[in-house]
Specification:
about 25% helix; four-stranded parallel sheet; five-stranded mixed sheet; single chain; alpha/beta
Length: about 475
């Protein structure tokens, strides 16, 4: 009878993880694809050099089966460092989970697999990338066949899984192209010039750029972030070199549709999907400032891995803006009940400095809109008050961007207040928290002092599918 209502507790650990077949790191991965004696020596020397006492290892789901073997090797090679394996991540696996590492007081982390290389704020990080299979000779042959002029300016970028081949690509092409530049990934703790790249002041507007990797988020971010004369993408699996226009895609047209939806919103949810990337608090403050100038209520929501079910709980919010790493592609999903936009899309919707101007490039990095970013434009609240009314391209209704701001508005630190007129021209004060007061269910009611004290009883114990002292199951 017990087996009918319960399962082996080991099933939760042995349960198969659903992997994405489009990700090269999730199909028939082997230990030698990312780990060998050289990598072991590098990590051990790094730990000994800095005298780290506790080191956390972060793996994506596809690499977890190899985690215990790698941890044991590090313990034997770099004693007395304590080595811990992160069983899960708070956000995407490409981001360094410094919050989880803080639970054991770690003073360093080793990140395995694909990484967005967002600058970490707390811990020193060492990256161990997956080594993708790339035929350099095949790539060189395809490139020289397509780009025959040796005097043209050529820039080459790649997915981080092909970083191991960057040196070989440079050696085989530098004798053919006189003006060749191969992208350099930013080192751990180093501030990148753009996304994960160190450009060293180099621009590519008059260059032909090539990206080595699949047609995914990394290619989209790089090709839209770096403005070039032409873009090509080399697929290592098929060996095809195809021209791509990053700013002419159905996906991008759909994003500008969501920008219009964001302009129509009367309430905005700021979804914080990172607690480690440098500058995320500055972005939160800027979005609140932009929304406040337009009289839009804002709510800060901190969640782990975002999915449509979580955000569907906030039915009162018209639009969500995601603050996460550039590789976070959750906002590309159509399954969300309300629009989920990026920080740059929110900037396009709310900052009058962008009115009437089509951006020459797209950015998924929230740092680009900060004062030190390449797409930063100053924001003046007075520009909102003087801006002309416009018409929504989605609903066809007129959007009155002029708002009446309450004088001396400092009410308990709540920046999400506006002034509206009631029936007899009376001024009513509206707070963001008042919206949730009209919900039919607001959580458990304590009713302190009104209910008769209950008799203390023994609680249930055992598995939820069949408690040991549940009278309803015999």
């Amino acid at each position: 009878m017990t087996s009918a209502f319960s399962s082996n507790e080991a099933a939760a650990i042995e349960r198969q993880v659903e992997l994405d077949p489009d990700q090269p790191e999730t199909v028939d991965i082997q230990l030698e694809d990312f780990w060998n004696e050289t990598r072991l020596t590098e990590c051990a020397d790094w730990i000994k050099e800095h005298n780290f006492a506790k080191v956390c290892l972060q793996f994506p789901d596809a690499m977890l089966p190899f985690s215990t073997a790698i941890a044991e090797q590090l313990k034997q090679t770099a004693p007395p460092a304590g080595v811990y394996i992160l069983g899960d991540t708070s956000y995407g696996s490409c981001c360094v989970d410094e919050i989880a590492a803080a639970h054991v007081g770690a003073d360093a982390m080793i990140h395995f697999g694909h990484a967005c290389l967002s600058r970490s704020a707390r811990l020193p990080i060492k990256y161990i990338f997956f080594r993708g299979k790339l035929s350099v000779d095949r790539f060189v042959e395809a490139l020289q066949k397509e780009l025959t002029d040796p005097d043209m300016s050529v820039g080459i970028f790649y997915d981080v899984s092909f970083a191991h081949a960057a040196k070989e690509v440079t050696e085989k092409l530098k004798g053919f192209y006189t003006n060749l530049s191969v992208g350099q990934l930013a080192a751990s703790g180093e501030q990148p010039d753009l996304l994960c790249w160190k450009l060293n002041g180099r621009t590519f507007e008059s260059s032909v750029c090539i990206f080595i990797g699949r047609d995914g988020q990394s290619f989209f971010n790089t090709s839209n972030g770096i403005k070039a004369e032409r873009w090509f993408r080399f697929d290592p699996a098929s060996g095809a070199l195809d021209q791509a226009n990053p700013l002419d895609s159905k996906w991008l047209r759909r994003r500008f549709y969501y920008v219009e939806k964001c302009k129509d919103a009367s309430s905005l949810g700021i979804v914080v999907a990172t607690l480690t990337a440098t500058g995320y608090l500055d972005v939160v403050n800027r979005i609140q400032k932009l929304a406040k100038a337009r009289g839009i209520r804002t709510y800060i929501i901190s969640v782990g891995k975002i999915n449509p079910a979580k955000l569907a709980n906030f039915v009162e919010i018209d639009c969500f803006v995601l603050i996460g790493c550039p590789e976070n592609d959750m906002f590309t999903s159509r399954d969300f009940f309300k629009p989920l936009v990026s920080v740059f899309e929110c900037e396009l919707a709310f900052n009058p400095a962008w009115n009437g101007e089509f951006p020459s490039s797209y950015s998924s990095d929230f740092g680009d809109i900060l004062p030190s970013g390449r797409l930063y434009k100053p924001f003046d609240a007075a520009m909102v008050d003087t801006a002309n009314v416009d018409v929504s391209l989605v609903t066809g209704k007129i959007r009155n961007v002029n708002r009446v701001e309450m004088e001396g508005q400092v009410a308990n630190g709540n920046d999400c207040r506006e002034v509206q007129l009631r029936g007899k021209n009376e001024v009513a004060q509206v707070s963001s928290g008042d919206v949730f007061q009209n919900r039919s269910w607001q959580g458990l009611e304590q009713n302190l002092g009104r209910d008769v004290p209950a008799v203390v009883e023994e609680g249930r114990s055992g598995l939820p599918v069949k408690y040991e002292n549940d009278p309803s199951v015999r």
